[in-house]
């Protein structure tokens, strides 16, 4: 990953992460990034993780539909093999994916909650919980009752975030030319597109400061 010039350990690194919750590669990258950030911070580095929204299926409904049906439209007869493959990859990363009752739904309100949580200093906690809610707990993350429950569980004070605020964030990502996710940018450097290994993420973090090992 390309990195900007030298920095000191006292500097705050900005890590931008563009993602959507149903995207398995976004979840893998976020999970690995959490491990890398934990190591970086434990070694004295300071980093701010900034979440930026992307919607894979802005036309999806709030009530949702079985995720298996959505995957079947993409993979056809290979759907079961595709699911088994991604569940195996998840297990190798220490994650658990379930698809029996998984719900594919609109993620706009989940990104709205992320915006709210980030403003209150709980961004990383709510994003982890929303990923897990979708991929492991088979919850509908477009359901207002589910979102309120997750907000309460992660210490987020529920407030109204205007639609226009979230739409402006989505347009901002589009203006930067991002058409696929996940995408990462370290301290305003070049965007890095696609799933990243924990090793690559750790190298990007430590390479920028040269001090947090």
Automatic annotation (TrEMBL):
InterPro entries: DSBA-like_thioredoxin_dom (IPR001853), Thioredoxin-like_sf (IPR036249). SUPFAM superfamilies: Thioredoxin-like. Gene3D superfamilies: Glutaredoxin. Residues 15-203 form the DSBA-like thioredoxin domain. GO terms for molecular function: oxidoreductase activity. This is DSBA-like thioredoxin domain-containing protein. It comes from Hoyosella subflava (strain DSM 45089 / JCM 17490 / NBRC 109087 / DQS3-9A1) (Amycolicicoccus subflavus).
């Amino acid at each position: 990953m390309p990195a900007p010039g030298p920095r000191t350990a006292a500097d705050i690194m900005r890590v931008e992460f563009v993602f959507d919750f149903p995207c398995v590669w976004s979840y893998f990258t976020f999970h690995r990034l959490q491990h890398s950030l934990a190591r970086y911070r434990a070694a004295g580095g300071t980093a701010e993780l900034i979440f930026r929204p992307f919607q894979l299926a802005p036309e999806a409904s709030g009530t949702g539909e079985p995720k298996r049906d959505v995957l079947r439209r993409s993979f056809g007869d290979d759907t079961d093999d595709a699911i088994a493959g991604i569940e195996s990859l998840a297990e190798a990363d220490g994650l658990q994916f379930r698809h029996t009752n998984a719900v594919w739904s609109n993620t706009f309100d989940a990104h709205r909650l992320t915006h709210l949580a980030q403003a209150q200093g709980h961004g990383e906690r709510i994003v982890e919980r929303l990923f897990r809610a979708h991929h492991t707990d088979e919850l509908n993350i477009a359901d207002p009752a589910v979102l309120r429950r997750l907000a309460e569980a992660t210490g987020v004070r529920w407030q109204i975030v205007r639609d226009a605020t979230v739409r402006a964030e989505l347009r901002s990502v589009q203006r930067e030319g991002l058409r696929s996710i996940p995408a990462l940018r370290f301290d305003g450097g070049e965007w890095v597109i696609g799933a990243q290994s924990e090793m690559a993420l750790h190298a990007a973090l430590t390479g920028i400061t040269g001090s947090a090992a």
